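Hypothesis: this fold can be encoded by more than one sequence.
Test: take the structure tokens below, design a sequence, compare later.
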């Protein structure tokens, strides 16, 4: 009979023949519907104080009486359909009032049930956490060697228990989500969507707000940030960097999944609901990087904190677009974009300051010809910049390099400036340019040496350090093999110039007298001159340094081949003649003696070679030990 009532064929045929019977028949069916639905609904009336219902008032319908919960929802749906029928057929208002009273009782109960489910099952509503837990268990198992059977058996048992536990969590989570959806569908269908959304929004918004708080994300104003010491702001930046991935990929993503599922019956409701839950917290999250970018005390060492922030948003951008895809959340994406833009502007400003600081550096060249603190600082800085090549390329791709005069072709063998439109090439060109700025500055410092050979040694040491840092870092890929070959050749050229200038008197004496036969007096004069020239060169260079062991050994071997082999010829040829003439004292060095003297060279005495002095590239930057990298928030 009830099926015929809702499908309407009986009603149609009856209506055409007897209007009076139709009214009676409709009222009868409506009364039956109200009585049947009312019997179920009243059992769970929160306002009834009779002893039979007192327990049901405090019991959890969906947790403790799942079969009755489904009956309850079915009763509400039948009541709703019946109400629609009565309104359509203009039946007596008394029936409609009675049905409305029952509906209010049912909605009040469903509101309580939704609140109870949301409050008591927070742990089971995070689908991302469940997924991560499952992945971590699998990775733990796969990381253990198959050779250790005993350990494997233990791990297998643990994984089995863990899998069972995860499976149980999955089941509870699915059940809770299904209950919430069923309640939401029922309330929305009954016209109580606003009441349903209000309860859901208040609960889930508190979850989002609390989670961000525990992740260390605070709601700050620009004024508060500007007044902070950098040490405090740096710590907050680190907290943000640790939190943002979890906030986006787990918190907001999980919240959207849940909201989409619960309110799948209405696109407008799920958009409104998720927007009201997530918008404020998401704006707080993505506004922080913009405030850091506007920090008035930004200096060169803070570049890497800025790049870390930029990199985090950039890497999460696809997820951000997907999660905050609703029109009502455009403001969240706009805030994230604004932060990226401001961070990029801050990075470009600091990069300009970095280049300017190199050009304006007025520190003196090191006395021993070693690696200048400027070289160490700049290369450490560039090495870290190279590690951010992805973010770096996005930041400078629309920021062309302004050069007053054409660059030497040798500095751009890979890539060439013609390829600047490529983001990766833009990074390579920019880094190559900064290295060139450094080398030009070092050329200027080298000119202050009175000894030309020491200036070449200084250039060799510093360029060798530059090349070494490039080879051992991501700069190797960015600058390319041709760049390395070219600059390796320049190091060798500088060393050759040093040997030629620093040992010119010694080496020239071999060339001028290599074939001519000398009389004993002439041989005596040759040895006296050689002794003087060698001692002078050794004495002058005894404090000079070559910090790199490989380069130092290479120079010693090269000098030994040229000096000792040339000297050995004269030593073996004229030693006996001079001894017989009674002038043995002029032959002061045996070849092995020269080897020992040369072995003592290039170790130096300057403490600056060991990074113990502090160095500041600009007056606005704090002093940084040359033995370490520029400080940053990575």
């Amino acid at each position: 009979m009830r099926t015929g009532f809702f499908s309407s064929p009986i009603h149609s045929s009856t209506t055409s023949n007897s209007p009076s019977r139709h009214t009676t028949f409709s009222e009868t069916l409506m009364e039956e519907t109200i009585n049947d639905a009312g019997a179920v609904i009243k059992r769970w009336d929160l306002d009834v104080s009779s002893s039979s219902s007192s327990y049901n008032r405090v019991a959890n319908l969906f947790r403790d009486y799942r079969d009755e919960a489904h009956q309850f929802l079915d009763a509400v749906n039948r009541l709703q359909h019946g109400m629609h029928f009565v309104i359509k057929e203009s039946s007596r208002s008394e029936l409609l009032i009675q049905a409305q009273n029952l509906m209010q009782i049912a909605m009040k109960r469903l509101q309580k049930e939704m609140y109870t489910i949301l409050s008591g099952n927070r742990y089971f509503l995070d689908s991302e956490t469940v997924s991560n837990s499952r992945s971590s268990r699998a990775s733990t198992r796969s990381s253990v060697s198959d050779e250790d059977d005993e350990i494997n058996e233990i791990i297998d048992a643990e994984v089995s228990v863990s899998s069972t536990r995860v499976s149980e969590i999955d089941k509870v989570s699915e059940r809770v989500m299904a209950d919430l959806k069923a309640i939401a569908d029922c309330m929305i269908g009954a016209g109580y969507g606003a009441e349903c959304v209000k309860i859901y929004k208040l609960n889930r918004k508190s979850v989002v707000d609390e989670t961000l708080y525990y992740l260390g994300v605070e709601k700050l104003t620009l004024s508060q940030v500007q007044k902070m010491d950098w040490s405090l702001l740096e710590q907050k930046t680190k907290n943000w960097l640790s939190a943002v991935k979890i906030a986006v990929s787990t918190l907001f993503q999980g919240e959207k999944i849940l909201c989409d599922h619960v309110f799948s019956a209405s696109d407008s409701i799920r958009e409104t609901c998720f927007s009201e839950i997530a918008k404020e917290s998401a704006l707080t999250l993505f506004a922080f990087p913009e405030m850091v970018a506007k920090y008035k005390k930004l200096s060169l060492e803070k570049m890497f904190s800025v790049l870390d922030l930029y990199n985090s948003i950039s890497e999460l951008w696809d997820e951000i677009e997907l999660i905050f895809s609703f029109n009502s959340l455009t403001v969240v994406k706009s805030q994230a974009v604004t932060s990226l833009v401001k961070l990029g502007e801050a990075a470009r400003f600091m990069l300009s300051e970095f280049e300017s600081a190199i050009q304006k550096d007025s520190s003196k060249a090191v006395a021993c010809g070693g690696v200048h603190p400027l070289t160490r600082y700049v290369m450490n800085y560039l090495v870290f910049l190279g590690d951010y090549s992805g973010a770096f390329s996005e930041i400078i791709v629309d920021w062309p390099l302004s050069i007053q005069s054409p660059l030497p072709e040798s500095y751009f063998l890979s890539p060439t400036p013609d390829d600047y439109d490529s983001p990766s090439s833009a990074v390579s060109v920019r880094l190559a340019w900064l290295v060139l700025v450094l080398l030009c500055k070092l050329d200027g410092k080298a000119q202050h040496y009175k000894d030309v050979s020491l200036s070449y040694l200084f250039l060799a040491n510093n360029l060798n350090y530059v090349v070494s840092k490039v080879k051992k870092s991501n700069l190797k890929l960015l600058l390319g093999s041709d760049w390395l070959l070219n600059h390796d050749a320049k190091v060798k050229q500088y060393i050759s110039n040093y040997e030629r200038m620093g040992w010119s008197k010694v080496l020239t004496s071999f060339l001028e007298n290599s074939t001519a036969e000398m009389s004993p007096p002439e041989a005596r004069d040759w040895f006296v001159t050689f002794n003087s020239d060698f001692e002078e060169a050794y004495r002058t260079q005894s404090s000079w340094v070559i910090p790199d062991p490989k380069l130092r050994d290479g120079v010693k071997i090269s000098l030994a081949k040229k000096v000792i082999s040339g000297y050995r010829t004269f030593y073996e040829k004229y030693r006996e003649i001079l001894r017989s003439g009674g002038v043995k004292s002029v032959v002061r060095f045996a070849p092995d003696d020269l080897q020992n003297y040369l072995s003592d060279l290039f170790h130096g005495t300057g403490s600056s070679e060991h990074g113990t002095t502090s160095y500041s590239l600009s007056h606005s930057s704090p002093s940084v030990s040359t033995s370490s990298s520029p400080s940053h928030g990575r």
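Residues 26-121 form one domain. Residues 149-189 form the longest helix (41 residues).
Hypothesis status: open.
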